[in-house]
């Protein structure tokens, strides 16, 4: 699942999904990374400028989920994405953020490989510090969604379940920076 609903408030209202990266919308890059990591069924949560994202981005085979509450923060996008998986038969949701292009397929594949069943809870770690992507086995979806609020997403849920969380070190294969401010745009190659 790619969370790509943000409006880029700190970027002057430029939706993150539409930021240009390697000549295409950033959301396309995020989907390509997830697919290269071996994920076949990709759900993309859209919000800000959802219609424009659908028009400009090539997302063949993706399930696009619109989050009408995107302005309330990442928590609502996580809830919308997890709800879209209900009844799908998926055993887990591997959650990636659209604004982290330094996290590639190698890191996503490592976290994906941590799956052991519906009770799995795993996250990438960078020098031992929890980051993204995060894998929620289906047994965690309802409670993680119930606690997902504002821009904190599932942070509180993960903290409360730290004893069940498997950290997968990815610092050697990824850089977990975010594209949040105009000063960060250089990382996209001049976006």
Describe this structure in words.
The chain is of the alpha/beta class and 191 residues long. Helix content is 27%, strand content 21%. Helix 3 (74-85) packs antiparallel against helix 5. The model has no long low-confidence stretch (mean pLDDT 94). Keywords: Transferase. This is NTP transferase domain-containing protein.
Helix/strand layout:
Blueprint: E1 2-4, E2 20-21, E3 24-25, H1 26-36, E4 43-46, H2 50-56, E5 63-66, H3 74-85, E6 92-97, H4 105-112, E7 121-126, E8 129-137, H5 141-147, H6 155-160, E9 166-169
Parallel strand pairs: 1-4, 1-6, 4-5, 7-9
Antiparallel strand pairs: 2-3, 6-8, 7-8
Helix pairs in contact: 3-5
Gist of the model:
The chain has 191 residues and is α/β, with parallel strands linked by helices.
Strand content: 15-25%
Discrete helix count: 6
Please list the strands of the largest sheet in the order they lie side by side: 5-4-1-6-8-7-9
Through-space gap between termini: 24 Å
Helix-strand topology string: EEEHEHEHEHEEHHE
Describe the main β-sheet briefly.
7 strands, mixed
Give the overall silhouette.
globular
The structure class reads: alpha/beta
Count of DSSP strands: 9
Radius of gyration: 15 Å
* Mean of pLDDT: 94
> What is the chains' assembly state?
single chain
List low-confidence stretches.
none
* Helix fraction by DSSP (H/I, runs of at least 4): 25-40%
Protein name: NTP transferase domain-containing protein
Keywords: Transferase
